[in-house]
Amino acid sequence: MRIQKFLSQCGYCARRKAEALVTEFRVTVNGQPATIGQIIDETRDIVRVDQIHIRSAPPKTIVLMLNKPRGIECTAPSKYNAGQTVFDFIPRPFARERFLYCGRLDKESQGMLILTNDGDFANRLTHPSSNIIKIYSVILAKPVTSDQIAKMLRGFEDEGELLRAEKILECPQSNGHQVLEIHLKQGRKREIRRMIEKCNSHVHRLKRIQIGQLKLKSLSVGDVKLLTQGDIDKLFG
Predict the structure, then answer these.
(1) Per-residue pLDDT tens for 38-94?
(2) Which DSSP symbol is given to 128?
(3) Which of 55, 60, 4 minimizes the C-alpha distance to 34?
(4) What CATH number did the domain enclosing 44 receive?
(5) Mind telling me the catalytic residues?
(6) pTM score, two decimals?
(7) Among 54, 69, 94, where does a domain finish?
(8) What is the CATH number of the domain that holds 197?
(9) How far apart are CA 3 and CA 62, in angstroms?
(10) Is 202 part of any domain?
């Protein structure tokens, strides 16, 4: 990064003022006078203005909520994946940030997806020790019985993993299809789909509608919301 940009990004002064400080020999890099346009490594080089150590401002944590559409992959864009991904929905003001998704939704699932530029935040939200409940609205192709629902609540092993729902509520039907509200604490790959398949049915539609106490509510499909601190607190509530 160029020295004048660094001083500007740190909030010390505007770039033009930074150039003036450099030409006045008031800026040093590792104890040596800086030069206009000098490239520095902001993670290692020591920059001082009038002997005052200038440090990078810590990156601001940005947390977004996307109502992910069906047919969109939770994956980073690459030459092997020419299709649209969840990162194509990042609003332009945040286009330069590197985002992570917090708990993927498979391609055919939709609903609430949290995106952040903070790896520590993503780990905190997704780590099993956080015990955060995720709630899904699931439309089934074929009804399951009360005994099968009880089986999902007890849990069972599949491919060496324990699959188990924390809570299952029966909801009003949708176009003749059985609808379940399924609460999960862990995040196994395709967990709900695998549980339903073990009950001799399959998922017709799957939508994540809530994480912690934060609800998707009326956010339209494909829209993104910048979360406030109050919203973020609800994720961990």
Answers:
(1) 999 888 899 999 988 988 766 688 999 999 999 999 987 665 666 789 999 999 888
(2) G
(3) 4
(4) 3.10.290.10
(5) 106
(6) 0.77
(7) 54
(8) 3.30.2350.10
(9) 26
(10) yes
